[in-house]
Write the structure tokens for this entry.
Amino acid sequence: MADSPLVRSAGEIPTPLYHQVHLVLRERIEQGYYGPNGMLPAEMELAREFDVSRITVARAINELAQQGFVERRRGAGTRIVTRDLPPPVPANIDGLLENLADMGNRTKAKVLEFGFVLPPLEARQELQVGPNELVQRAVRVRSHNGEPFSYLTSFVPGYIGQHLSEEDMNAGSLMSLFERHGIKIGSARQSFSAALADPKIGQALAVPVGTPLLAITRTVLDIEERGVEYIRILYRTDRYQYRMTMERDKQGSSRFKTAAGTQIKNGG
Amino acid sequence: MADSPLVRSAGEIPTPLYHQVHLVLRERIEQGYYGPNGMLPAEMELAREFDVSRITVARAINELAQQGFVERRRGAGTRIVTRDLPPPVPANIDGLLENLADMGNRTKAKVLEFGFVLPPLEARQELQVGPNELVQRAVRVRSHNGEPFSYLTSFVPGYIGQHLSEEDMNAGSLMSLFERHGIKIGSARQSFSAALADPKIGQALAVPVGTPLLAITRTVLDIEERGVEYIRILYRTDRYQYRMTMERDKQGSSRFKTAAGTQIKNGG
DNA sequence: CACTATTTGTCCGTATGTATG
DNA sequence: TCATACATACGGACAAATAGT
């Protein structure tokens, strides 16, 4: 019952308490934590759980009500409004899979920033470029059916980036662009993490600040193991999922053969 | 030069101006916008650029100085600190990889909740069990070197769960337990998302409420495609990363062979 | 119908944080 | 550095609506 503290402004992140509570409640509602057509716990109960004052909880809930997530009635409590039609589970999961190279074909990218810069540390390490070597940096937002779902910051070594114009970045996949310029993709490694939307990213993805985002960092190498692209992608989790399947190999060992793909969710 | 506008609290997002300025400046420095060993523009200049008061800019810069990104000297301006000595890349990345079955061996799990329940909707769908069929539910926290890094909620069909005691859940991997009871793991599918720590999870993982977490949802099937386990895992991103490598196959097609693994980060 | 417990709605006073000029 | 204005957050108090007995 002793709960973990929220981030007081004494700490690191100066985000108002009521807004933090708001975000957590919003996510719970969307995840079905309180059930469909359910009731939110009473203000006092939530105040105890989050260890804040009732007024702070009330303000968080009022914003939920203002956004149509709940309905409040004095004396009766707070009812969760059922957003019609819970997102249908796709009938054919595998049919919706898209691999890395296909991604560009079904989506559109908009270039927000473009230029040649001295790369940040991680990019330098991953791409194995010198400390004073310029790399091409691009910030883009990728959309599907006009709905933004990912925010990309990419770094490409200068000797490759010279051949890529800003218009190129608008186009489909970088993979096909690379191929066209004689660069043979050899391998890629990527890692998964999570991050919060800050004001800039939140605006670009049309989500509130503080929304949790899936973060994928990827390094692409050519067949001679030279760094070709270092990219960090932030995904809206309500519009995008990274899926993978693993199958045991025939030997029955503990190793799995894996296949990865992504799924863009249907409109919400 | 024209930058995206800051978000006044009058608008949607209640993030202090000085912190927004702080974030933008920090990113510029990391991206090399002002060059290495460069000087930050004067406070008044930045104040004009961001259209805020000089004091607001000063506060943002002071936080940068406190975090070691810049050095301030009265009358001389603000100098960007180059931090060389990049954090050493682990000598052997692949040596740190752990696959699914190995996970249990190096970590300890603590059972927080344990019992037989009617499963929530997604669990029922994934495991293909009837609406009134009981399944075993367990909530655990997994730790490495005494540091919690993941929060697991698992569902196992009743006919399997009968054979698994609460003590079993403390032990190593479920995979080896399954094998011991004659269940042949066939395949698994998982998807990646992100979520926020609520008070309960925040306490279990020792992070503040609102911390972004990597969320992995996994369904394990036996060789006859029957659901064996449905599990949702929330990971601290500062202590855990999910990595995967992809290698182009020999045909040169757009398909990749993938191998996945996880890395528990060293203590911070 | 009244009585009560619960819950939301509203106000006060106070303290601190934020942002401006 | 100061004065000012506004936002945030707290505890306390009370009123008003609701549901159950």
In short: The radius of gyration of chain A is 22 Å. The first strand of chain A starts at residue 39 and ends at 40. Residues 9, 14, 42-44, 54, 58, 61, 72-78 of chain A lie near DNA strand C (CB under 10 Å from a C1'). Residues 200 and 225 of chain A are 34 Å apart (CA to CA).
